[in-house]
Amino acid sequence: AARGERCPACGVAALAPGAQRDVLLALAKQSILAKLRLPARPSAPQPPARGTLLAALRRLREQRSDTAALPGMLRDGPVPRPRPGLGLQEYEILSFAESGSSTSRSVHLHFRFSRELSRSTEILQATLYLFWAAPSPGAQPVTVRLLRPDPAGTNTTVASETQLEVQGPGWTTLDVGPAVRSLSGRETPRLTVELEVPEDWGSPLLAEHSDSHRPFVVAQARARTPHRVHRR
Amino acid sequence: GIDCGADSRMCCRQEFFVDFKEIGWEDWIIQPEGYHMNYCAGLCPLHMAGIPGLAASFHTAVLNRIKAASAAAAVDSCCVPTQRRPLSLLYYDRDSNIVKTDIPDMIVDSCGCT
Fold this sequence. Notes:
The complex is a heterodimer of chains A (232) and B (114). With 232 residues, chain A is α+β, with helices and mostly antiparallel strands.
């Protein structure tokens, strides 16, 4: 530090041990929150049920065939970069669905992404995992609509619509990368998934949320590269 | 690098472990249980500046050339991190999503004099 200014370490060294510890703990909190781009620590989270978390991680692990796609969550140590990063901070996000309105023929699922992450990161990929209960035999066409809030956050607009052929009970996946990317910078970055079937399936469209097969999205993101000034 | 002892005065690495339970963060940080917020402290007298292996860097090489030219030109030498590694965190964000990230250069492994 320039003469006359006190660098943190020297300043700390001059403090009494008790005060020194408090200053260092405060520095640690400030440093971690700053690097996570959080204004403050998140309020008490509502963790998913243990069975839900284990079923999701088991499903992700079953994709062992292509370990490159295996999210870093399941690995120890640093998150593998999906592609050579520029030393930028990478994120893996596991988001479980919140139940929305539902009828015998349609279900709404809501996924929320935190504002800080959606502002300061670019989504590299995002995949929706759906577990179907026991649909009637034979392929069943399901319409999947991805809805996002309009810029004002008052209404929702359809970001995309896809026809899924559900062959039977089990997991299916859907790429929702473009829809999640389009949430970037929104005041309420929330993705709504609307599932609609041609007629009553005679059973809940999806496994009950109390069940451990709750729908989830896995996203990989990277801190935005600082705005580059092009010099002529 | 050198770890600080009880009465170290020269440049060394001071270990400092932050237990997340102690600061009430264990409810939203799933892994790890704490953070090694080590830091560098101590003196860097000129005869220690730039000793190879303490802070072998281009900056040191240039300093050596300046010192070779004239002692008066030598500038202060500082006790700085010479090796750092990322802090891997698994945590719940404000929407209770589970996030895993590596924060680069958060843990100081060794210190040295520039």
